[in-house]
Amino acid sequence: MAKNKEPRPTYAVSVVGLSGTEKEKGNCGVGKSCLCNRYVHPSADCYYSEHTSVLSTIDFGGRVVNNDHFLYWGEVFHRGDDGLECRIQVIEQTEFIDDQTFLPHRSTNLQPYTKRAANTKIQSAEKLMYICTDQLGLEQDFDQKQMPDGKLNIDGFVLCLDVSKGCNRKFDDQMKFVHSLYSQISKTKKPIIIAATKCDECVEQYLREVQTFVTGKKNLMLVETSARVSVNVELCFNALIQQMDKTRGKPKIISYLEAYKSQRQLVASVSDKFEKLIVQTVRDYHTSWKIVSNKLKSHPDYEEYINLEGTKKARNTFSKHIEQLRQEHIKRRREDYLTSLPKILNKLLNNLEEIEMLSWTEAQSLMKSRPEFQYYFIELEQTPWYETDHLDKTEDRRVPFDILKTMEGERIYQNHVQHLISEKRRLEMKEKFKKTLERVHFISPGQPWEEVMCFVMEDEAYKYITESDRRDVYSRHQQEIVERAKEEFQEMLFEHAELFYDLDLNATPSCDKMSEIHAVLNEEPRYRALQKLATDRESLLLKHIGFVYHPTKETCLSGTACIDLKVEQVLANRLVQLDHGHSNIYYNSANIDKVNLCLVGREGLAQELANEIRAQSTDDEYTLDGKIYELDLLPVDVNSGMLLNHSWISNFKPHGFFCVFSSIESLNYIGDRVSRIRAEIAQSRRDRYSQPMPFILILANQRDSVCKNMPILRHQGQQLANKLQCTFVDIPSGTFPRKFNESQIKQALRAVLEGLKHNFDMMSPMPSIKDLSETDLRIVMCAMCGDSFSVDLILSPFLDSHYCSAGQPGQCNTLILDKIIGDRRRRIQVTVFSYHSSIGIRKDELVHGYILIYSAKRKSSMAMLRAFLAEVQDVIPVQLVAITDSQADFFENEAIKELMTEGEHIATEITAKFTALYSLSQYHRQTEVFTPFFNEVLEKKNNIESFFMFDNSRDGMGTSEDVFPQSPHSHSPAYQYYPDSEDDGEGPPPYSPIGDDVQLLPNPSERRYRIDLEGNEYPVHSTPVGDHERNHKVPPPVKPKPNVPPKPNVKKLDPNLLRTIEAGMRTTRWTRGPMLGHGDDLEASDNYAEPADTLFKSKGFSDDIYAVPEDAHSRSGRIRNSFGGLALHGDEENGFDSRSKSQGGRRPSKYKHRSKILFSKTKAYHRRVHSDVSDDESGPATQKKKKGRGNRGSEEDPLLSPVDPWKGGIDNPAILSDPEQDDKKMKKKKQPKTKEPKKAKSTKTTKSLYPPTRRNWESNYFGVPLQNLVTPDRPIPLFIEKCVDYIERTGLTTEGLYRVSGNKTDQDNIQKQFDQDHSVDLIVMDVAVNAVAGALKAFFADLPDPLIPYSLHPELVEAAKIVDHYERLQVLKEIVRKFPPVNYDVFKYVITHLNRVSQQSKTTLMTADNLSICFWPTLMRPDFENKDTLSTTKLNQSVIETFIQQCQYFFYGGEITEPSSAEGTPPPHGHGLESLLALQLPPPLQPQQIQHPLPPEPLI
């Protein structure tokens, strides 16, 4: 071994083995070159399996071979396991064969191979490193490295033995050659390693022989190798290095099989990593290998795989992955297409009858014929589809048509056909099962499926369909019968209108009233049908009652079918356009200088009239009443077709028509043409709604002699003029030789000018209120919401008129009709309302007549008419109108016949007019239908207005909002109408007897009664007097004493009735001020007259307020009427004073006393409820009355109520008393008389403004202490959280939030539902946000103690007086910390919510100031009867306002919000505060008169 003293020793290794010609070594070598290649260049890409020894002379002489029989393979740097490094230089001793002679090439060394291979000194100048056979001749293209110094000293030998099945070679010959070669090499004393090559193809026998050979030699080692699979190659050279350098550790020699196994495991691991790397990196099958290899070239897994397996295998792996991605993409697209195919077939081939017998090929042709085919399919020129670019068009969802030709496509089609067949069968069975359920009549609304299932289990359809289908069908059936039952229940409630409409608006029914309602309705099957849905039934009933007492168009139970909404829509579409069209009118001023006249006549009459006018003119200028007009005349024959062509109208622009006639024939022509001309003009200008043209009828004179038919012509001309609503110009008295005279022409021209001026005044875009208020008659038309007829039907008699215009701005349901009635043209204001909107107008407004509409197909429509008409004063004319389709309905439908007959009977009983309108008839849509009614109204107008003024004067200080402006005729107070206001929006309306603090269903023990203006009773709760009075906008009226019937009539009274009247005489009365006296002091006396000053004079005043009646001796025959302030315990009459008495022969009453039908229907309910109840049980138990409160029993027995003898409704000649008096007096008989105790001084105690009697149901949640409703996990009561969450989610931008009162029925219903189920969802309940806000405030009102403890009120008041803003906030913060923990958490939660509400003040208009006004009484609950409370009202409110504004500072540690100029000033204190309160509040001793400054809504 050569000793190398360099730090990195270098060893030269010679690889030898069998070499020579093919004859000697066979047709392949023993693997010397492959072994050297694998060791020197271990990378798979640098390994070449073919190394030839047959060379041309040129290649042999090249620098690589260099005419030597050895190859220089280069150097390898080796690091052993012990860390020592060395450099190994490798040469291969071989023998090159000439490719021409196939003999060894001649070289400088002519020794045989065995001797040449044993040489230890190798020399060859400028010899290049050998890489592969392709390098020969192309040395410049490969890496060129020279053999160091051109010479090498061999340090060891690797003797190769091929143990594979030789290639035309005998193994024994190889062994002989090896023995010889070994003998030569061993002489060199150099280390030798025997390398068994090609062990991957080894023959076991050969390997054993080699092992035997090695065993027989001393210090000879055998290494089993395979260069092709790179096994033990490096081990072979490492073993030689150890022998060359004994200092190195001896390597472990392992067999080929063990080494191969380890090698394969390594390759498998590296391959797996590489494949995963490819999968993670390559997601698109369009990616190229170049891009991937560049991306991964620095990745260790990639490098390791390339080194072991090579780039070629790596690329193959990549290609397989790319193909896999492509196939997966194709599979996905195919699956998408096949998945969408059933849906496409459902769209294109959904008719089973059409495709059931078609083959798949025929079905494909049918799909191609569909217009939607191109939307769902695409036909490609090339197939299959996945070989086209359509594969990559993922945005194109169309299915390639060739997919349908596959087996999968046909299978899907067959499945589609079978699905249609089964679905058809399933639907048939479901429908059959539905019919089966419909035949089972005992299924009631709300009945569970489990109760019905056993009765239908044997049904064929039941067995066929699945359980889910059964439940679905039953659920649908239940939904239908429930909806139908609810609709029928609602209709039943409407049919019992008289049961609900006997109280004023905004009142609430008492417990007795609710018992009465349930007793009556319980007899109805439609009521009992909802027995299993009692909660829903009760909710519907309460909703109905809530609507009855709080009616608005927004809450109408008919929804969008509300008459008010529909009328507004129709009038807005028709009349608003009318107003807008007048800005383009070609005569837009009453000052007209030029008049265009169209003259219409027959047989030359028009031309003769034109000649006469021109004869009286000068240069077409006509002088009339001192003014000159330029006339443009256009004579047209009545038979001319030009009249029916509207184009000439736009060109000529006529201002009026002169229609002249001289015979019956010409008059008939004129009538026909005028109607057609008007229709043509209206049709041509429908969009602009031009004003009606003035038409003037002119009668022409006969020149020859006085026509005998002249009176007939004059009469018929006048009739036609009335029908057409135009002016008739008659022939002046006397005989004139000419057909026309100057006076006729002037009269006609004046009529045209007046008509133009009238049209301009009536239809100008901006009419003044003063002009529109001057109407002659005010008519109210009422109709029932939800009736089947169209609103256009009842409005068409007015809207089709050419003299119809819009009402006053803001009155969206009012129209003005200009119509000739009597001797001149009248202006009639017609207001169209639903019945529920008309209730408030019935007694509070001046109405000259009612047109009451009802549908003859609907019982509830007639019931609503009866309920409304029963309370109408009988001095007001009424027109009843029945609506049906045609006259044939009367004879073909018994129900329609019955309702029409009932309407006619009612009209006969009350002497009203009755007519019918038919939706299929056009004649009855003309205005003339109501002309007789308008005439009657005009005749009775003075009496109506006189009664209204008298009745209005009895109402004293009462004011009300009116739908009508001030009447110039009646001199009654002006009323302003607000059509968009809601009854429950800004507190109770003026006619409301109570405010929002009254609950819907009070307990009998908590009731107090008052009587409204109609004698109805309503409950009043024990709210402090001051608060109660403050919640009413209108003081009660004081009514005068009516005329009393004479003594003889009293003797004819029924004894029971007389006792009732006498009992009523002793009943106490109550006025708004101090008590007038006690019941015992109010006996009848001669000084009986009208208490004019009752509202203003107290008990201490003189009795001179009563005037002396006419007959002082008739005291025993007079029945005293107890008229008081807020409550009346006598009877109430609609009586006349001396003026009305002289004008009419009787006192006005209500229509229910003039009609047997109305009277019986109204009282029938009370008979049913009270018929079996004794007198002692007929009313609630007698209760002690509070100061100033009357008390009443229930309704009277209707059998004791007589009817006036002059009315033909009820035959009872023995009773001759005032019917309405008797009605009111009989009500008192039901309750025992109670004597009101004298007023006593009561000890004042601190009262809560919120008495705990608001609810009428027992609750374990509401009205209990706050600490009982919270837990450590839930510090806020659940009800508060639900309300606040609902408000903030749905109504945080609602205008007037917490100020506008919600519907009281809905508020109670919310709390009741929560009582029953704490998980109730307010969104599902679909309640108004104002109702939820009211329920939230009611929660705090019901607490036993206020949220802000009473003990802290004085501290809060003192803190509010602090002048310095920041000091005031600091003190308030310290006070808040004194709250009980429960109160503090809830107070923090509520104030935070109010702060969020105040942030929306731009839309809600609810600033912190407004919210504090609404909320401070709720949170602090003061006693307003306490003088101290009144003096601190403003301070308390400012405290709550500060909490809301500074919410972040008080509760969340935030900064103080800088106050505005208004907020920065502290509230006044000391004398300044007292002076301020003196301006706002009345003296503290009279809290019941306080009206300012209080929250704008009534407190709960």
Pick out the low-confidence regions.
577-590, 762-772, 956-1144, 1172-1221, 1224-1253, 1460-1500
Q: Helix tally?
A: 57
Main β-sheet, in a few words?
7 strands, mixed
Q: Gap between N and C termini, in Å?
A: 118 Å
Radius of gyration computed on alpha carbons: 57 Å
Order of the strands making up the biggest sheet: 20-21-22-19-23-24-25
Structural class: alpha/beta
Number of strands: 27
Portion in strands: 5-15%
- Helix content, binned percent: 40-55%
Mean pLDDT: 75
- Based on CA inertia axes, which overall geometry fits? elongated
Describe the structure.
The chain is an alpha/beta fold and about 1500 residues long. About 40% of the residues lie in helices and about 10% in strands. Helix 8 crosses helix 11. The protein starts with 9 loop residues before the first strand and ends in a 20-residue tail after the last helix. Mean pLDDT is about 75; it is low at about 575-590, about 760-770, about 955-1145, about 1170-1220, about 1225-1255 and about 1460-1500.
In short:
By secondary structure, the protein is of the alpha/beta class. The chain is built from 57 helices and 27 strands.
